[in-house]
Write a structure and sequence with these properties.
This protein is mainly alpha-helical. The protein has 3 helices and no strands.
Length: about 130
Protein backbone atom coordinates (compact mmCIF):
# COMPACT_ATOMS: atom_id res chain seq x y z
CA UNK A 1 0.00 0.00 0.00
CA UNK A 2 1.14 3.42 -0.77
CA UNK A 3 0.67 6.43 1.47
CA UNK A 4 -2.41 7.82 -0.25
CA UNK A 5 -4.17 4.40 0.16
CA UNK A 6 -3.80 4.70 3.94
CA UNK A 7 -5.65 7.98 3.86
CA UNK A 8 -8.77 6.28 2.53
CA UNK A 9 -8.36 3.19 4.75
CA UNK A 10 -11.24 2.74 7.18
CA UNK A 11 -9.79 1.19 10.34
CA UNK A 12 -13.12 1.00 12.10
CA UNK A 13 -14.73 -1.07 9.33
CA UNK A 14 -11.77 -3.47 9.35
CA UNK A 15 -11.97 -3.67 13.15
CA UNK A 16 -15.67 -4.57 13.01
CA UNK A 17 -14.99 -7.28 10.40
CA UNK A 18 -12.30 -8.80 12.61
CA UNK A 19 -14.52 -8.64 15.69
CA UNK A 20 -17.33 -10.35 13.78
CA UNK A 21 -15.03 -13.17 12.66
CA UNK A 22 -13.59 -13.65 16.16
CA UNK A 23 -17.10 -13.78 17.64
CA UNK A 24 -18.10 -16.41 15.08
CA UNK A 25 -14.97 -18.49 15.86
CA UNK A 26 -15.70 -18.29 19.60
CA UNK A 27 -19.28 -19.49 19.08
CA UNK A 28 -18.11 -22.33 16.84
CA UNK A 29 -15.41 -23.37 19.32
CA UNK A 30 -17.94 -23.29 22.18
CA UNK A 31 -20.26 -25.56 20.18
CA UNK A 32 -17.37 -27.92 19.45
CA UNK A 33 -16.38 -28.07 23.13
CA UNK A 34 -19.95 -28.84 24.19
CA UNK A 35 -20.17 -31.60 21.63
CA UNK A 36 -16.83 -33.06 22.78
CA UNK A 37 -18.01 -33.01 26.40
CA UNK A 38 -21.05 -35.06 25.41
CA UNK A 39 -19.33 -37.53 23.09
CA UNK A 40 -15.78 -37.99 24.40
CA UNK A 41 -14.97 -40.69 26.93
CA UNK A 42 -13.74 -39.72 30.36
CA UNK A 43 -11.10 -41.47 32.40
CA UNK A 44 -13.78 -43.29 34.39
CA UNK A 45 -15.39 -44.50 31.14
CA UNK A 46 -12.06 -45.85 29.90
CA UNK A 47 -11.34 -47.61 33.21
CA UNK A 48 -14.77 -49.22 33.13
CA UNK A 49 -14.25 -50.38 29.53
CA UNK A 50 -10.83 -51.87 30.34
CA UNK A 51 -12.22 -53.71 33.40
CA UNK A 52 -15.07 -55.13 31.32
CA UNK A 53 -12.67 -56.21 28.57
CA UNK A 54 -10.36 -57.97 31.04
CA UNK A 55 -13.33 -59.72 32.66
CA UNK A 56 -14.53 -61.02 29.27
CA UNK A 57 -11.05 -62.18 28.27
CA UNK A 58 -10.50 -64.11 31.51
CA UNK A 59 -13.98 -65.64 31.33
CA UNK A 60 -13.37 -66.75 27.75
CA UNK A 61 -9.99 -68.21 28.71
CA UNK A 62 -11.35 -70.28 31.60
CA UNK A 63 -14.42 -71.33 29.61
CA UNK A 64 -12.33 -72.54 26.68
CA UNK A 65 -9.98 -74.40 29.04
CA UNK A 66 -12.92 -76.16 30.71
CA UNK A 67 -14.37 -77.09 27.32
CA UNK A 68 -11.02 -78.44 26.12
CA UNK A 69 -10.56 -80.58 29.26
CA UNK A 70 -14.11 -81.90 28.93
CA UNK A 71 -13.59 -82.89 25.29
CA UNK A 72 -10.23 -84.53 26.08
CA UNK A 73 -11.78 -86.50 28.95
CA UNK A 74 -14.63 -87.71 26.73
CA UNK A 75 -12.27 -88.74 23.95
CA UNK A 76 -9.91 -90.56 26.31
CA UNK A 77 -12.71 -92.43 28.10
CA UNK A 78 -15.11 -93.26 25.27
CA UNK A 79 -12.98 -93.48 22.14
CA UNK A 80 -12.83 -96.97 20.58
CA UNK A 81 -9.58 -98.87 21.10
CA UNK A 82 -7.02 -98.56 18.32
CA UNK A 83 -7.00 -101.13 15.52
CA UNK A 84 -4.19 -102.44 13.35
CA UNK A 85 -0.57 -101.82 14.18
CA UNK A 86 -1.43 -99.42 17.00
CA UNK A 87 -3.52 -102.05 18.82
CA UNK A 88 -2.37 -103.23 22.23
CA UNK A 89 -0.33 -106.39 21.85
CA UNK A 90 -0.21 -109.26 24.28
CA UNK A 91 3.02 -109.41 26.25
CA UNK A 92 5.58 -111.89 24.97
CA UNK A 93 6.53 -114.68 27.40
CA UNK A 94 10.21 -114.53 28.21
CA UNK A 95 12.03 -117.70 29.24
CA UNK A 96 13.49 -117.54 32.72
CA UNK A 97 17.22 -117.07 32.78
CA UNK A 98 19.15 -120.07 34.07
CA UNK A 99 20.23 -119.84 37.67
CA UNK A 100 23.78 -118.66 38.08
CA UNK A 101 26.34 -121.13 39.28
CA UNK A 102 27.90 -120.23 42.60
CA UNK A 103 31.06 -118.18 42.54
CA UNK A 104 34.38 -120.03 42.78
CA UNK A 105 36.51 -118.83 45.67
CA UNK A 106 40.18 -119.77 45.79
CA UNK A 107 41.95 -119.38 49.14
CA UNK A 108 45.73 -119.04 49.02
CA UNK A 109 47.45 -119.23 52.38
CA UNK A 110 49.92 -116.46 53.24
CA UNK A 111 53.49 -117.27 52.40
CA UNK A 112 52.56 -119.80 49.75
CA UNK A 113 53.62 -117.45 47.02
CA UNK A 114 57.09 -116.01 47.44
CA UNK A 115 59.24 -114.14 45.03
CA UNK A 116 62.04 -116.18 43.57
CA UNK A 117 64.80 -114.81 41.41
CA UNK A 118 64.98 -115.91 37.78
CA UNK A 119 67.28 -118.83 37.05
CA UNK A 120 70.69 -118.17 35.55
CA UNK A 121 70.61 -117.67 31.82
CA UNK A 122 66.94 -116.83 31.71
CA UNK A 123 66.14 -114.00 29.42
CA UNK A 124 64.53 -111.08 31.20
CA UNK A 125 62.76 -108.76 28.88
CA UNK A 126 60.19 -106.17 29.70
CA UNK A 127 56.61 -107.24 29.21
CA UNK A 128 54.82 -106.15 26.15
CA UNK A 129 51.25 -105.09 26.54
Amino acid sequence: MTMHEFDNYDVRAEDEAIRTRVTKVEKDSEAILQRLDREMATKADLEKAVATLIRWMMGSLFGSMALMITIMTFVMNYAPPPQGRFAKQEPVAVAAAPAQSPAIIINIPPGALQWQPAPEGAQTSPRKP
